[in-house]
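MODEL INPUT / OUTPUT PAIR
PAIR INDEX: 1
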Amino acid sequence: FELYEGETFAIVGESGCGKSVTSQSIMRLLPKFSATITDGAIRFKGKDLRHLSEKEMRKIRGAEISMIFQDPMTALNPTLTVGDQLTEALLEHRPVSKTDARKAVISMLELVGIPNPQERLRQYPHQFSGGMRQRI
């Protein structure tokens, strides 16, 4: 498939038909030992993603290409606080200080209706409801 600037593309289908595997393949999130792309290209802004280093891919993932995982129970790392995870994403992809990243995370949590965001930053995913985890 091809997707051009300004277009929206949806992958839909039955459970188990390969939607997630396709998306994870594009983003190179599948383990190399179990998944190999043998033909074709994955072009983004003129570059074939298959040939980029892991460091180059980390700059693109989350900043230019994102994936929202359906299951809120597995999308967040249970061993890290919600604040650490959200702040890390901003620090990885934007030129901001830790203080500014934390302020931005608090604003985002407020925007999606998470009560007491300053306090909630120190909490772990299991301390949030399923709906809150989806919003996070």
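PAIR INDEX: 2
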Amino acid sequence: MSTNTRKAGVSRRAFTIGAGAALAAGHLAGAAHAQGFPSRPVKIIVPFKPGGRTDVVARMLAEKIQSNGWLSQPMAVVNADGGAGSNAVNLMGRDAPDGQTILHWQHQLLIAIAMDLGNFSLGDFKSIGYTGGGSPVWTVSEDSPYQTLDDLVTHLKDNPRGLVEAVGIGTIPHFVGAMLANAAGFETRYVTANSGADRLRMILGGNADIALFAASEYLAQQEGLRPLVYFGTERLAQLPDVPTATELGYDVTWTNPNWWLAPADTPDEHVAMLAEALEKAIADPEIVQYFQDNTLEAYWMGPEESAADAQKTLDRLKDIAATIG
């Protein structure tokens, strides 16, 4: 072996050892950094008042994580409703992007972005993951002449805008109804109803013909309502006779997830630690049973997969927004 060859070999070997040492040092530094996280209670901001699904799920999972020691610090829920979610996002933005303050929301966030209702974009967040979710049903009153979705669609095609749909503009009922209308080729007229209670009152009072409800809302009420279609990927066990939109030939689903988010600059290792704790919590038998009892599905979708799913959903919602804006 020539001297030049030996020198080259030594140089390559020295470079390899040096790179490996640097990489190992980087891993050790990252591990040391992660070991100090969380250094204080993790603040979970919920953009709704206490008592709703998003708030209840956040509190249940936080309690489960704390009771099992899956994070070294407890998690505390802070409610910040209003401003189409901007109040919650702004509150999160006041703290350092270190994973100590995170957001628990759902895909109303994406609707707000699609409708340009908030002062934020998808790029402002890093997805921690989805912890289950649920799907809604589209209903008419029980004395409605429409026994099936096909009956209703046929009527609306023959009588454009001939029925009244109770929605809150820029809400999930608004967008899910619009997705179905676009897929089936019909139009309704809107009447403003910003809550499930408003929609129920309008349906039962004869001031609206159609309204969307969470499956749990429908099952709690039932009397006076007739469900025509379910927007899950498959039929709901508690509503075995209600077909899905996809069964009926419409490519429309809405599986609204419990979505955990951190500021975009949050260290990946902190996101990974939060994700690991949440994944354990959503698999806990007590949590799974609660979800099943409340027409929800308990599942886990991690940071990368949930981020990709959110982007795909946002693209679709922007297309819908362009047709209703």
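PAIR 2 NOTE: The longest strand covers residues 125-134.
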